[in-house]
Every structure is written in C-alpha cells, then in structure tokens.
Amino acid sequence: MEDIIEVENLTKKFGHFTAVDNVSFKVKKGEIFGFLGPNGAGKSTTIRMLTTLLRPTSGRARIAGYDLEAQQDQVRRYIGLVAEKIILYDRLTADENLQFFGRLNNLKPAVIKERSDRWLRRLGMEEWRNHQVGTYSTGMKQRINVVRALLTEPDILFLDEPTLGLDPQTSRLIRDFIAEVNETGATVILTTHDMHEAETLSDRVAIIDCGKIITLDTTENLKKMVKNISNPTFEDVFLTLTGNTVRDIASSRITSTSRMWHGRPTNRVR
Amino acid sequence: MKEIISHIWQIAKKDLIEFSRDRIRLVTFVIMPIFMMVLTGFIFPSQTTLKNVPIGIARLDNDQTSEQLIKALKDLSMKDSQPAFNIKTYQSEDEVKEGIKKQEISGGLIVPEDFSTKLAANGQAQIIIIEDQANPQISAITTQVLEQVVNTFSQQIGTQKVGYLLQKEKVVPSGEAAEKTALAFLKPITTKLLGLIEGETNYFEFVAPGIMAMVVMTAVMTGLAGSVSREKEQGTLDGILISPISRLAIILGKATSQSIRGLAQGVIVLILAILLFGVKIYGSLLLVFLLLILGIFSFVGLGILVSASAAEQETATQILFMFQFPMLFLSGVFFPIQQMPKIMQQISHLVPLTYAIEALRKVMILGAGLTDIRTELIILFSFGLITLAIAMPLFRRMITR
Prior knowledge:
The complex is a heterodimer.
Chain A: E1 3-14, E2 17-28, E3 32-36, H1 43-50, E4 58-63, E5 66-67, H2 72-77, E6 79-82, H3 94-104, H4 109-122, H5 138-150, E7 156-160, H6 168-183, E8 187-191, H7 195-201, E9 204-209, E10 212-218, H8 219-225, H9 234-242, H10 256-262
Parallel strand pairs in A: 3-8, 3-9, 6-7, 7-8
Antiparallel strand pairs in A: 1-2, 1-4, 4-5, 9-10
Helix pairs in contact in A: 3-4
Chain B: H1 2-20, H2 23-43, E1 53-59, H3 64-75, E2 85-90, H4 93-101, E3 107-111, H5 115-120, E4 128-131, H6 136-168, H7 175-186, H8 203-234, H9 236-241, H10 247-277, H11 285-309, H12 313-330, H13 342-348, H14 352-366, H15 374-399
C-alpha cells in the first residue's frame, strides 16, 4: 500500500520547550491512523503542522506527495480538518457556513449544495440547516463541523478529538460516519482520548508521549505487548506504555498576557 | 486574479453578515460616532458659544458715560441673539475678586471712581478688567470680548471729542463730516476680514473633518485587529487558513469588510455634522470619500501588524489603545497642530492621520481641489504601501508561528 503521509524528523519548539521531538512515521493510503497520547504529548501540534497551520522548527513531511513546507497550497487541496475548536461561525446558518468554506475551496455553489444535502441528511441535520449555528448544541455543531471538513471530499481527513464532549448517541453517529467516509477511500488521522474509539476505528495506532512517538503498530499487536495482564483492554495498553502518572503540562503557547499572570510556563512535571 | 477577488469578497461578505447579526455591535457602531459628534460639538468653547457668561461689574462712579458703557455690555448679544454676558453688580473691586474666587462670575470689570472726571477733564480714563485665571479658556474669550467692547466705546467718545474740536476750529463745516474726519484721524487704517468661503466658520467645522477621519480610521484599525484575533481565538481562522487561498486574499477580505464599516461610520458622522451642526462641505464630496479611503488604506498595514502579533483580542485592544490615544492628540483632531511645540509638530507629521485630517479640512472647509491636496494624497498612499509591504510577510510568518 502506498504511503500518503511521510513524516521525517519533524520537530516543533516553542522557545525552549520542545512540543514535538524528531518524529517520523508514515500513514498508508486509505487507513485510519490512530494518534494517541496523554494531554500535552504533542498530538495537536503535530496535526497543526501537518495541516499547514504551524511551521515546523525542523524536519520535513510529504502529504499526498507534496512537500509540506514548499507546496503548502497543494497540500491544502488534499486535506480536511476537524480541529480542537469548532470551525464554524455562530452567527451564520449551517448552510451559510458550508457555502462560505466551500467557496474558499473553489467549489461551485451547486456542488456545495449537493454534498451538504447528502451529508446533512446522513447526520440528521437537514432541518436545522437554516438556523444560526450559535443556537445549536455542541453535538449539532460538531456534526456540521464534520460536514464542513468533508466538503472538498479530501483525500486525507485530520480529526482532532472529534467526539470530545459529545453524548454517546452523537459520538456513535460520528464514529460510524468516520468509518463510512474511510470506506469511500479517505485516509483518516484520528486523535482521541477514548480508548474504545481508538481501538474500534484505527487500523494502526501511534502513541506519542513527551513529543516522541513511543510505539506504532496495529491495535492487535499493541495488545500483545502487555504481558502482565491477561486479556488486556486498549486502555491497559495505553497506560502500560505511557505510565500512570497524571500529566501536568503548561503549554508554552500560553500568551504573553496570561504568562504575566501565571508566571512562566513550567516544563513537564514528572 | 479572478479567484483572489472572489475569495476577498467571500471573506468580506461573511464578516459583514456576521456583523449585521450582532445587535450589540451594531448599536455601538451607530452610537459611537453620534457620541463623538454630540460631545465635541456641544462641549468645546468657541467665541460664538459665549452665552450668558456671568461677569461682575463694580461701578464706582455715578456718571452717565459709565452707565452707557454698561448698557453696551448688557446689550451685547451673539448671533443667536442670546446675551453674551449675564451681568452681576458689585460694590467694590474686592467684591468682584471675591466673586471670581467663589466662581460666581467668570471675569470682572471695574469702573474706577475717577473715570468720569478724568474723561470730562479730557484726560485718559481707565477701565480695569479682571480675569479668572482658573479658567484660561473661557477667560481668554471673555476678556477679549470685554476689551473689544471697551475699545469700541472708547473710540466713540474719542470720535465725538475730536469731531467737536474740528467743528469748533472750523476745519470741517458740518457735524456729520466732522465725525467722519475725526474717525479717520483716530483710526486711519481699518481692516477687512475676507474668508475663502462665505459666512463664518465655527469650531465645529474645524473639528468635524478631524472626527470623521479619526472615527473611520480607528474603526478600521480596531476592527481589523479585533476581527482577526477574534477568529484566531475562536479557532475559525484555522478553517480559512487551511483553504488553498492566497494569504493576501485573507487580509484584503478582512480589510474590505472593515473599510465598508468604517466608511459607513464616516457617513454617519458626515450626516450628523450637516444636520445637527450645520456644517457645510465646500469641496467635492467625492474627494472627501477618496481621502477617507486612502486614510483607511494608510492604516491597514498597521492593523494587520497588530492583529498578527496579538494572540488574543484583549492584547490586540491594548496594543491599539497605545497607538490610538497619542494619535488622537497628535493628529490635530481637536487642537490645531500649529499650536503645539515645534518638536511635537514634527512628531505629529509622522502620523498619517494628521495628513488625512489636514486634507479633509482643506476640502471640506476651504473647498480645495485635487491638486491642492496632492501632497497629502501621496503621503497617505505611500504610508499605506510601505506598512502593507512590511506587514504582509510578517502576517504570513506570525499566523503560523
């Protein structure tokens, strides 16, 4: 299988703090690639770099065959993103939001309409399409947000904790939808703290901790690594590999004003 | 190119729709220029706003001449037929001074005991004007008007006296000719005030172009920085940034929506100035808009720099306030920069707003044409171009820091 993402020695430093440390991995075309790690491990930073939102300090990556640094615009044509924060305007309706982002991606209004019709129906949001997004619940917003990320029918879909804070019903709906989208050929990079989600969806999983990838394998093989527990769950795998200590990490991307109030960001506390 | 323009328009349109649905922002958007206009229009003093200013008069002699002088003061009215002074009578100079101390009156006039006797004896009499130093601005206008009244009155007496002499010595035949000649002797040179436009301008006409330029430009700068940092904070900027569109289109889209808003505010100011304060525009309205647009252009670069460097809205507002506050005073919105010390005048000419305001005044008050404001137009355009050239690459870098 051909590699759609190739990451080589990717590093991101914020001042003295290294958020992502010399990370290398490959994602195969058409797979769901789970990207797990404790809070502050560097998952989101990696995703932001791979989606051209953050400039790597060093290292390189090829996305869909294009160089991340030199061919940003080409890279952007192949990716869709569901980020930590919902990318929708509260004062626009779902339709207006989708038209706006679709047009920015050079899609014709009719194409946007046809695609949103299809997915809004699938996600049960059709009757809400003319309401302002600000009036929605979190679950409703996230459904529209996923449709937005899919408008361009991207080859690669980055999902940064897509089910965070959602009720079980919406989580299930979105999870099923991710699997469907993947079946149509899209490659999915998924970060989540939901171990069950990671296990059921992912073909392969990379676990990142302290900015470094500590393991990368199929869920089955990862489970086999846990020797001291019989019939280990995926959570056991995660805890065995990353330890039981609760992480306390201050993001170095804390802004100057908040730094003024809270002091300098501490590095990690072990 | 067609694509970029379409993207610019998409972003601008989206911003304007969002804005139009935010009631609070919409209300403040309209109210802010109204406040600015009404406050400056009604509060700042000018000669014509000398209305019912309380002054104290102590008349220590009992002659008809001084009575006439006081009557002249009482009858003095400004153009809207309101009396200029509200006269209070005191018994002595000390009482008048006491009145000023208590701030019952804003100035005083003393007619000394020997006033009439000196005049009658063909000597030089004196009127004492006491100023209220606690209130220099009012005091300057008050004393100036008092002096004028006394001078005119003094001249009348002089003319009568000289006229009488001329007639007595048979230099001129009739009484009427005598007074004419007397006046010519006493005041051989007169002045005539000629403006470039008809009628008299007031402080408000001076301040209106300044407020208009300021409102428009601060609106654009705060709007631009606010809108970019708000989207950054909410995360929606990511959605725009991962689209395969030119970074220039993002900035120009934002700048377009803010410029449309700024111009709309400018129009509100203009309409208020015309309807509420009777400001007349003597030059071309088209030129006024051209100046506003160039003024906006000159600030876009600065707005981008601030928005790119500030991660949060609050930070952006703080940085902007740091720029705006000194600019308000340096650019001559409220006071002519010619009144400032030399060094401050030089500094004020580093601020693009200064040129925008100067040019707007020339067009609006003096009816200047395109060639009269050529320099200002060139400076505004170059300032915008240079800051934009610095800001664009920085925006690219900072936005993906």
